[in-house]
Amino acid sequence: MEKQLYEELFSIKNKIDRSEIKFKLMDRAKTVKAKHIAEEFIKEFQKAEQEKEKEEKTNRSMQLIENITNFYPDSADKE
Predict the structure, then answer these.
(1) What is the per-residue pLDDT for 15?
(2) Rounded to an integer, what is the distance from CA 62 to the centroid of its chain?
(3) What is the Rg, in whole angstroms, of the alpha carbon atoms belonging to the chain?
């Protein structure tokens, strides 16, 4: 179930929708007296989400640098 929840949360691209789902999860966890488990799950999800965003940012930066500095030797001959 935990893996399925992670996958479901990661599949939601809109941050507002994702926050709403996390709130509903916490509310449900309070109802079934499993708040500490849900808090730990949300904490781990947020950690994974931050790592994913950091990795995507790094990949975008590296791609941008490569696009700027990648000169093809053929392009100089065509001018």
Answers:
(1) 81
(2) 18
(3) 21
State pLDDT tens for residues 35-75: 788 788 888 888 888 898 899 998 888 888 777 777 665 55
35: nearest Cα among 46, 15, 43: 43
DSSP assignment letter at 78:
T
Dist CA 56 CA 16 (whole Å) = 20
Check: CB of residue 36 under 8 Å from CB of residue 23: no
Tell me: the pLDDT tens digits for 11-26?
887 888 888 888 888 8
Contacts of 39 (CB under 8 A, 6+ apart): 26, 29
